[in-house]
TrEMBL record, chain A:
<dbReference type="InterPro" id="IPR037148">
    <property type="entry name" value="NiFe-Hase_small_C_sf"/>
</dbReference>
<feature type="domain" description="Cytochrome-c3 hydrogenase C-terminal">
    <location>
        <begin position="228"/>
        <end position="309"/>
    </location>
</feature>
<feature type="binding site">
    <location>
        <position position="195"/>
    </location>
    <ligand>
        <name>[4Fe-4S] cluster 1</name>
    </ligand>
</feature>
<dbReference type="Pfam" id="PF14720">
    <property type="entry name" value="NiFe_hyd_SSU_C"/>
</dbReference>
<keyword id="KW-0560">Oxidoreductase</keyword>
<dbReference type="GO" id="GO:0005886">
    <property type="term" value="C:plasma membrane"/>
</dbReference>
<feature type="region of interest" description="Disordered">
    <location>
        <begin position="351"/>
        <end position="387"/>
    </location>
</feature>
<dbReference type="GO" id="GO:0009061">
    <property type="term" value="P:anaerobic respiration"/>
</dbReference>
<comment type="subunit">
    <text>Heterodimer of a large and a small subunit.</text>
</comment>
Automatic annotation (TrEMBL), chain B:
<feature type="binding site">
    <location>
        <position position="583"/>
    </location>
    <ligand>
        <name>Mg(2+)</name>
    </ligand>
</feature>
<dbReference type="GO" id="GO:0016151">
    <property type="term" value="F:nickel cation binding"/>
</dbReference>
<keyword id="KW-0560">Oxidoreductase</keyword>
<feature type="binding site">
    <location>
        <position position="79"/>
    </location>
    <ligand>
        <name>Fe cation</name>
    </ligand>
</feature>
<dbReference type="GO" id="GO:0008901">
    <property type="term" value="F:ferredoxin hydrogenase activity"/>
</dbReference>
<keyword id="KW-0533">Nickel</keyword>
<keyword id="KW-0479">Metal-binding</keyword>
<feature type="binding site">
    <location>
        <position position="79"/>
    </location>
    <ligand>
        <name>Ni(2+)</name>
    </ligand>
</feature>
<dbReference type="InterPro" id="IPR018194">
    <property type="entry name" value="Ni-dep_hyd_lsu_Ni_BS"/>
</dbReference>
Length: 387, 598
């Protein structure tokens, strides 16, 4: 069967794409994956020898924001992903077939590609009352999910619904909405959280799996380290204002207009592991903090139940800039409770001292701000707090 | 007895063959259709079932009302932002918060951006395959395709070589044997009527629109930080404006405004040179397929949206009009009041919820939601394993049945355009008349599947142009020295009354959307949403009135009931969004779920 042997490279060549363009694509792909140019030949080799991998994309209780995010991908373009990288054989949101014709595809792929296809899951199954709160195809979603997962090569849990439960699982979780890894056993589950995840993170994870035929390195929660190992706060371009003790105090105040730190407005960047402050959103245009609103922490487990969004954080040690999600675990959070407030306090104290010394800047004193940030962003503040 | 007449004037015959379409794909969420077709394969009974429910309003209870926009935004990621906007308006209405002019304009820009992107994606990626045969495009002559494209538009991507490349890529894709999202579909179905060249042109634009839609939403990213699910703020918008001062790079500045302006210009061009010409070209081949009118020639409802003047929510300020048309009488546009307990009411006789008295409807301020899943005695199959056929004489959907003064209503772009037309507003009347003239069809043609689809296209064009106007308004306000974006006078809960309640409204791309909130002691006490697809996809009410989906499917001839192309075409014309579903709170705030599976 031709479909079993045709590779991504074959398809691209048949579409009239030159080898030169193909290699350029491989270079861009490896760059997008954070692998560097040395990996481009490996990417090329992988794509030359592998057929398009079947992907089944199921929807449970969800809002379709993950699909909407996926189609925003700028590199690779989603049309190239769907036409040339994967074989998206089932996705309720965009597939042409419906009803019996759609349902039949699930059985066909499960039987003809046993152990070979990727199961992508958007949303989650409600377990309460036998699952009657989600009945696509006339049967509980949990049954479709577990059946399709059993024969999949791997499961991708798209977004916070599939990864953690998300909004329908927020207290009191009326339908007992349950994340995918608690229902699926025996097949590896890779979590790509966020509400939704960033488009290029989604296509990046998928391209990695297709290109290298393996899962990317995961942290102990099952998230790809390449996108989820550092906190938004660690890479935030407003971090110097945090360190300098320059905060937005009210919406649309002078600090807001100058792009000061949003910590006091409830920003959850210091406790959120995601790529927003580096990859950014929608082809790198911006991310929540850059557009003036604090991070909601939407890629974190149970973020809906971690207090009001506009209440400032008082937990978690902010100082492990290089620590990843594995080393800053729940235990560390408990031990370091209150540290971030202390850190902000130290920043403010230091800034006050600077002002007294004539070295800092008051709120809104114009051009002096830039100069004031220099010393404020040095390591002294951090080491002082560490001490 | 298998035949009956509904009070709203439709005949139902539940004899004949029962056909099930589940899942209905190319929509948001989970929808099931069951149809009875007669010996000639004409639909004589239609049953529309929402098959998912999440209970978001129960989850909102006890939360900070300033957070509600983020929760309700997650009702739908396709019409992202519109629930958030409705929510901040509801909370501002309850607390008496007035927003600055710039915040109003930026909100309008964000809502109009959603309209342009969502309508475009709906037409090309959710709806086009009901009209366009992808495989037929392989038989097209690229030269003739180029001639066709150039005859209807000045869009530059129209050379024979361009269409040859697209066709080559499609050919390789089909020949790979891995058809992906086009697998197992209805290619070659006799209900497809476009010549191969029109199909190839449409396939090319399907791909172009997929590339372009991601550009449009960058406007949300500028003002809201991301899309889907940008950020909003009670009292204004979160993005501050700093045009030329220190730190302007950290706010909305000239570069950001230029990005927005440039996207708006490109959006107008794409809609006018690609979407509208395609729509008219495709419609010209289907103009005698006049099925799917349903309720549209009778009852239409719109709450209105996009206030020109901040905090003024009357028709003289709303760019999209508010009003109701009943019984097809276009001479009278009734006033709509979302706070009047006699106007909007929801019924649950055929919904998987229970009321103490199910013969009565409840206004959303008094709304009750107790989930009560139970299928009727004539159900075939078992919900625990698989439902084969539902029993519509009993409860059969997770959607409630909202009614306006007792009437089942259709909402959406067609409703908005007809109401605007009936009010004599030229911005709606002129494009409608021009389109009818272009296609050489009478005004009655509006009330059809194709009319719904055409109205959405015209509205997309209206929205793209309105974006230009709102952007100019923003610049003019900034030029006058006003850069305020948020009113924080009532930000702190200590400034709020002990109890307050309010209504927020928008016109989501799919239709009228309302949120009703009650705040007590700084927390949400009750929150209710009535969403567009609840109006359109509603099950029957106690009187037996059928909703817009069910009405529109009646009398549709099917070539082959096993291949539901014609039915999908009509359902997609509504752009269904099922994740919205409905409510879950009893008056005492206790969740009282009861589940009976018979």
């Amino acid at each position: 069967m031709a479909s079993r042997t045709e590779t991504f490279y074959d398809v691209m060549r048949r579409q009239g794409i030159s080898r030169r363009s193909f290699l350029k694509f491989c270079g861009l792909t490896s760059a997008a994956l954070g692998l560097g140019p040395a990996w481009a030949p490996k990417v090329a080799e992988a794509l030359e020898t592998q057929p398009r991998i079947p992907v089944i994309w199921l929807h449970g209780l969800e809002c379709t924001c993950c699909t909407e995010s996926f189609i925003r991908s700028a590199h690779p373009l989603v049309k190239d992903v769907v036409l040339s990288m994967i074989s998206l054989d089932y996705d309720d949101t965009i597939m042409a077939a419906a009803g019996h014709q759609a349902e039949a595809i699930l059985d066909e792929v499960r039987e003809t590609h046993r152990g070979e296809y990727i199961l992508a899951v958007e949303g989650n199954p409600p377990l309460k009352d036998g699952g009657v709160y989600c009945l696509p195809g006339g049967r509980p979603f949990k049954d479709t999910l577990t059946t399709m997962a059993a024969d999949a090569k791997a499961v991708i849990a798209w977004g916070s619904c599939a990864s953690w439960g998300c909004v329908q699982a927020a207290h009191p979780n009326p339908t007992q909405a349950t994340p995918v890894h608690e229902v699926v056993t025996g097949t590896p589950v890779i979590k790509v959280p966020g509400c939704p995840p960033i488009a290029e993170v989604m296509t990046g994870v998928l391209s990695y799996m297709v290109t290298f035929g393996t899962l990317p390195e995961l942290d102990r929660h099952g998230r790809p380290k390449m996108f989820y190992s550092q906190r938004i706060h660690d890479k935030c371009y407003r971090r110097p204002h945090f360190d300098a003790g320059q905060f937005v105090e009210r919406w649309d105040d002078e600090g807001a207009r100058k792009g000061y730190c949003l910590y006091k407005m409830g920003c959850k960047g210091p406790t959120t592991y995601n790529a927003c402050s580096t990859v950014r959103w929608n082809d790198g245009v911006s991310f929540p903090i850059q557009s003036g609103h604090g991070c909601l922490g939407c890629s974190e487990k149970d973020f809906w139940d971690k207090g009001p969004f506009y209440e400032r954080l008082t937990t978690l040690d902010p100082l492990f800039v290089e620590a990843d999600a594995d080393t800053v675990g729940g235990t560390a959070a408990l031990v370091a409770g209150g540290a971030i407030a202390a850190h902000a306090g130290v920043s403010i104290a230091r800034r006050t001292a600077q002002r007294r010394n004539g070295n800092g800047t008051g709120n809104g004193t114009g051009t002096g701000t830039g100069k004031g940030q220099g010393p404020g962003h040095s390591d002294t503040g951090d080491s002082a707090t560490r001490g | 007895m298998t035949t009956m007449s509904t009070p709203n004037g439709f005949s139902l015959d539940s004899g004949g063959r029962r056909v099930v379409v589940d899942p209905v794909t190319r929509i948001e969420g989970h929808l099931r259709l069951e149809l009875n077709v007669d010996a000639d394969n004409v639909v004589r009974n239609a049953v529309s079932t929402g098959t998912m429910w999440r209970g978001l309003e129960l989850i909102l209870r006890g939360r900070d009302p300033r957070d509600a926009w983020a929760f309700t935004q997650r009702i739908c990621g396709v019409c992202t932002g519109t629930h958030a906007l409705t929510s901040v308006r509801a909370v501002e209405d309850a607390l008496g918060i007035a927003i600055p002019a710039n915040a109003n304009t930026i909100r309008n820009i964000m809502q109009l951006t959603l309209y342009v992107q969502d309508h475009l994606v709906h037409f090309y990626h959710l709806h086009a395959l009901d009209w366009v045969d992808v495989v037929s495009a392989l038989n097209a002559d690229p030269k003739a395709t180029s001639a066709l494209a150039q005859s209807i538009s000045s869009w530059p991507l129209s050379s024979p070589g361009y269409f040859r490349d697209v066709q080559g890529r499609l050919k390789a894709f089909v020949e790979s044997g891995q058809l992906g999202p086009f697998r197992n579909a209805y290619w070659g179905h006799p209900a497809y009527r476009l010549p191969p060249e029109a199909n190839l042109m449409a396939v090319a634009h399907y791909l172009e629109a997929l590339d372009f839609q991601k550009e449009i939403v960058k406007i949300h990213t500028v003002f809201g930080g991301k899309n889907p699910h940008p950020n909003w703020l009670v009292g204004g918008v979160p993005c501050a404006i700093n045009l030329d001062g220190t730190g302007a790079v950290g706010a909305v500045n000239m570069e950001r405004l230029n990005l927005v302006g440039s996207i708006i210009d490109r959006s107008v061009t794409f809609v006018e040179q690609v979407y509208i010409p395609d729509l008219l070209a495709i419609a010209s081949f289907y103009k005698d397929w006049m099925h799917g009118g349903g309720l549209s020639s009778q009852n239409l409802l719109s709450y209105g949206d996009m206030p020109v003047r901040a905090n003024v929510h009357t028709n003289d300020s709303l760019m999209l009009p508010r009003g109701a048309i009943v019984g097809g009488d276009l001479s009278t546009v009734h006033e709509v009041d979302l706070t009047d307990p006699e106007q909007i009411q929801e019924f649950v006789t055929h919904s998987w919820y229970t009321y103490e008295d199910e013969s009565r409807g409840l206004h959303p301020f008094d709304g009750v939601t107790e989930p009560a899943f139970a299928v009727g005695p004539n159900t075939k199959g078992d919900p625990a394993t698989r439902i084969e056929a539902l029993d519509e004489s009993a409860k059969y959907s997770w959607l409630k049945a909202p009614r306006w003064r007792g009437h089942a209503m259709e909402v959406g772009p067609l409703a908005r355009f007809v109401i605007g037309y009936a009010l004599g507003r030229p911005e709606f009347k002129e494009p409608v008349d021009a389109t009818l003239r272009h296609l050489d069809v009478p005004i009655g043609a509006l009330f059809s599947t194709l009319g719904r689809t055409a109205a959405r296209g015209l509205e997309c064009q209206w929205a793209a142009r309105a974006l230009k106007g709102e952007f100019a308004r923003l610049i003019a306000t900034l030029k006058a020295g006003d850069t305020a974006t948020a009113n924080t006078d009532l930000w702190e809960p200590s400034a709020w009354p002990t109890t307050a309640r309010g209504v927020g409204f928008t016109e989501a791309p799919r239709g009228a959307l309302g949120h009703w909130v009650e705040i007590r002691d700084g927390k949400i006490h009750n929150y209710q949403c009535v969403v567009p697809t609840t109006w359109n996809g509603s099950p029957r009410d106690p009187a037996g009135n059928i909703g817009a989906f069910e009405a529109a499917l009646l009398d549709t001839p099917m070539h082959d009931p096993e291949q539901p192309l014609e039915v999908l075409r009509t359902i997609h014309s509504f752009d269904p969004c099922l994740a919205c579903s409905t409510h879950v709170m009893s008056p005492d705030g206790q969740e009282r779920a009861s589940v009976v599976v018979r």
